[in-house]
Amino acid sequence: MNPAPLFHFHQARLGYGPSALFENLTLSIAEGEQVALLGPSGSGKSTLLAALREQRQDQCAWCPQQGALVPMLSVFHNIHMGALHRYGTWHNLRTLIRPAAADRARVAELTGLLGIGEKLFTSVDRLSGGQAQRTALGRALYSERPVLLADEPVSNLDEHQGLDLVRLALQRHRGAVVAMHDRALALACFQRIIGLRDGAVVLDAAADQLSLAELDELYR
Amino acid sequence: MSDTPALDTTASRWRRASAGLALAGLAAFLCADLELARPSPGAELAKMLGGFLAPDFFHTDGLWQALANTLAFAFQGVALGAVAGFLLAMLWRHRTVRAGAAAVRAIHELFWGLLLLQLNGLSTLTGVLAIAIPYAGIFAKVFGEFLEEADPAPERSLPAAAGATSRFFYARLPLIWHGCKTYTAYRLECALRASAILGFIGLPTVGFHLETAFREGLYDQGAALLYLLFILILTLRLWLRPWLVPAYLVAALAWAPPLLEGRWATLVRFVTVDLVPAPLRQGQGLAGLGPWLSGLWIEQIGPGLWQTLVLGMAALLLTAILALLMFPLLSPLFGNRLSRGLGHVLLVVLRTTPEFLLAFVLLIMLGPSMLPGILALALHTGAIIAHLTGRFSEGLTLRADAARGLNRYAYEVLPRLYPNFLAFLLYRWEIIMRETAVLGILGIHTLGFYIDSSVSEFRFDRTLVLILATVALNLAVDALSRWLRGRLRLSNGSLAAP
Fold first, then answer.
1. Which of chain A's residues have a Cβ under 8 Å away from the Cβ of B411?
2. Least Cα separation, residue A220 to chain B (angstroms)
3. Fewer CB within 10 Å, N or C, chain B?
4. A123 to chain B: nearest residue by CA?
């Protein structure tokens, strides 16, 4: 038998109050699986991601859609925020005022890979939507946790940039569950694809057994 | 990578402005007289605490009359001030009206009281006007800005034939009516405090008995008075009903009718003789005015301004620090239900106690120096700003994996709240300076000290010049604060209106 799965739901009810989004969810995700979560807006992708995070808080790098960044702080500080738990409070307070050279170098290496190296000390409210998304993903990567949970992390980037960024993110995590709309990107980068609609799993298959046309069905 | 990326953050702009203000505050602390003149403040504190634990409500003569006077002055003062302010607000586009309102409100209620005392003695009219005149300036500003910011569309859509009066009552007034009502109720709370404080210059309100009780060390009686004042202010929302206001006003007028007790001749003499600079009065002509003014500058205005600035800037720094420390006490992003409950009580007590009274009590405890003044202003204003900032934090939603404790405070919350905090602080700056000047009446050597002495020496020409100096200082600070707010593009902090 397989070892216990990383995430597991058995006939679960997810969402808030009487209008639960998922009435009856049964789903398992094993350790090391990289999963793309597809489905139209309002189908429950964000709710499912939040529920996944609840199950393994300490192992998950988290990249939500909204309220993700502190707009008036620099890219450096927003990315460092992913790693607050790794350092003592005094080190963090000091970093807010004057970052240590070692921390600067580490974050600079990451922003170089993300393509926003020259914006390291620019505040997020002065970035384009795409640059802000790169920063948000950077914050998740910098938390250095084994499983990435991300909610439409590349929706503001063009396909090529999106592809590079998703590849970079997947290289650095053993497991991942990423919500997105881009079907081609999902097929190209992930092993498993889960399709959601109206709070139910309507598709769950290995990526190499699916075609773009089948995925388009989800959005009709 | 060739060189380090440039620093270009919104936070750094706020940080630079804050560092500038903090440096000014630190310099002020270095210049300030912070001596602990009382050898053992602990003993006095213990005696006071004893009084607060066992208040005596029955041995103050005329306590209930004083309470009734406090209410009557406040009601009449606010009513008169609101009506006058409203009329001025309709002329708000005129520069002279705006300047006049600014000058009138830059003079503290206590200074107005000191002047009016000379004309109308220790009477109701003195108390009422001391509140009504500066409040008219404040109401004019607030109502005038309400009118400016109100949506112009309803008026534009009226047919051109509609007269100006109909336009105003149908398309302008309804838009701002609710705001005016709420603000007037808030002002009544301030007026109750002001009315109580007027007792310190001899008017028959709660402050008169408070001063006597505390000076004589009768802390049990003083505590009782303070408790009554608290109860009055904290229950305001329960008894201040719109349909009861006319009844309250009639009662206030019947209890303490604002009669003109001074004689016309006194008023004329005061304006044409007493207020005229001594060299002019004694026939030395304009030539004598220069030496008179420069003497006054060297002996009183200069030192008074300097001490006011030092105390005010030190208080501003401590206010900022206390506000930043205290706002998490009532923010839902920190602590638990118990800590928020206790924080709420602490902030309410500090906000409700007038800073003047707080300074008076601390002065008895710590002895005469700037320390009691700085502490009193910072505790009171810090609590107000902490309250506003904490309330604002209720609107923040943090991401699910946001840090906790100090990390949360420093990285997630403070940067997001900082523009609002800074706007609140800059709005309060002018009020801090205004209160600083008036603390002089308690014996701290700010401008108010020289004003108070000149009044007791019957040198009202000096009083006038010194009061004009406080006006100039207030207007300068107001302009500086407005310039800084504009430069930092801070949000409108109208919550912290004067």
1. 70, 73, 77, 81, 84, 92, 96
2. 32
3. N
4. B9
Tell me which amino acid residue B56 is: D
Q: Which CATH architecture has domain B55-275?
A: Orthogonal Bundle (1.10)
- Whether A108 is in a domain gets the answer yes
Domain extent, residue A75, equals 7-217
**B10 interfacial to chain A (CB closer than 8 Å):** yes
Q: What is the pLDDT of residue B493?
A: 46
* Other beta carbons less than 10 A from residue B441's beta carbon: 25
Instruction: Report CB contact under 8 Å: A81, B411.
Output: yes
CB–CB contact B397 A67 (8 Å): yes
CATH number of the domain residue A145 falls in: 3.40.50.300
- Reduced to 3 states, what is the DSSP secondary structure of residue A203? strand
Q: Check CB contact under 8 Å for B1 and A62.
A: no
Strand, coil or helix: B71: helix
- Which of chain A's residues have a Cβ under 8 Å away from the Cβ of B406? 89, 92-93
Q: How many of the other CB atoms lie within 10 Å of CB of B263?
A: 11
**Residue A63 included in any domain:** yes
Q: What's the total number of domains in chain A? A: 1
Give the rounded percent of residues in chain A with a pLDDT score beyond 70: 96
Domain ranges for chain B, please list them: 19-54+297-498, 55-275
* CATH class held by domain B19-54+297-498: mainly alpha
What are the distances in angstroms from CA B28 to CA A16, B308, B314, B349, B390? 54, 10, 5, 28, 28
Distance from the A37 Cα atom to the nearest Cα atom in chain B, whole angstroms: 20
The Cα–Cα gap between B419 and B14 comes to 8
**Cβ neighbours, 10 Å, residue B179:** 17
Apex B56 CA angle, B53 and B59, nearest 5: 165
Bridge partners of A178? Answer: A36, A150
Instruction: State how far the Cα of B137 lies from the Cα of B294, in Å rounded to an integer.
Output: 31
Interface contact flag, A84 B416, Cβ < 8 Å: no
Q: Is residue A2 part of a domain?
A: no
Residue A1 lies in a domain: no
pLDDT score recorded for residue A19: 64
| pLDDT value of position B383 | 96
Of B9, B411, B415, the CB nearest to A122: B9
Over the stretch B44-84, which tens digit does the pLDDT of each residue have?
Answer: 889 999 999 999 888 778 889 999 999 999 999 999 999 99
Which residue in chain A is spatially nearest to B401 when comparing CA positions?
Answer: A62
- Is A100 touching B (CB cutoff 8 A)? no
Instruction: Check whether A165 has a pLDDT greater than 90.
Output: yes
Residue A7 · residue A28 · CB < 8 Å: yes
What is the C-alpha to C-alpha distance for residues A175 and A33, in angstroms, rounded to an integer? 5
Report ipTM (2 d.p.).
Answer: 0.90
Q: How many CB pairs under 8 A join A and B?
A: 82
Residue of A84, A104, A147 to mutate, interface with B, max B Cβ within 10 Å:
A84
CA dihedral B306, B311, B314, B320 (to 10 degrees): -130
Residue A16, SS3 per DSSP? coil
